[in-house]
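User: Before I run my own analysis I want an independent prediction to cross-check against. Here's the chain; please return only the structure tokens and, at the end, one sentence I can use as a sanity check.
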Amino acid sequence: MLNEGAPALFLDTAFALMLETGRRGTQQRLRALRVELMRPVSHQEVYEAHFGCCVRFKARRNVIVFRTGDLELPFATYNAKLLARLRPQLDREIARLKTRETTSFRAKRVLKRLLGGKGTGVHEVAKELGMSCRTLQRRITGEGSSFRQLLSDARRELTRLYLLHPSLGLSETASLLDYEDPNSFLRAFRVWEGVTPTEWRAMRRAGLQETSETLRQPPYELCVPLALTSRS
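Assistant: Structure tokens:
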């Protein structure tokens, strides 16, 4: 079950990822037992086709339910001995990557998490990173950026993600990005992309449709991320 205040985009992504992880791991065409969503009815046939079960809208909670037997299925690729041998190397690589992250990168990641929530001021970000505001600003400046620029970049990157979700309106998107009103969001978007959000969505839909038509013709093969595929 997920937080009732979570945006619809996050809920859909999380539920789809849970199902896809099970399908890829077990190498079986798993289906959810049921899905409950608090939001109004929208594209019900699309949701039910993907999750393979009844999807109930206007529910009291947001939840995806799986059969007990499916949850107990082992992952086909799990290899405890191999994992034990690889773990030290993986831990070292993760630690190495963390040390290469710039303060600006870490701050922007925190901003993305805080947007639409408890505040995105420099004080909140500095607290999340365990440093003073002065230290945070000094490091960001030393890396050739500014807090204001990082906030703008975080908003722009999240906007591109939000606008791909048809159920999110412009007012809701502006709110998730901590804009005081939709007009402020529209002005910022024009600066980023040179078009309105509506025009950007139309261009993206046209581009995706054209790509889809092209990929239907052999010998092209589409390589997509793990979370977007249903079979290996």
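Sanity check: The chain has a mean pLDDT of 82.
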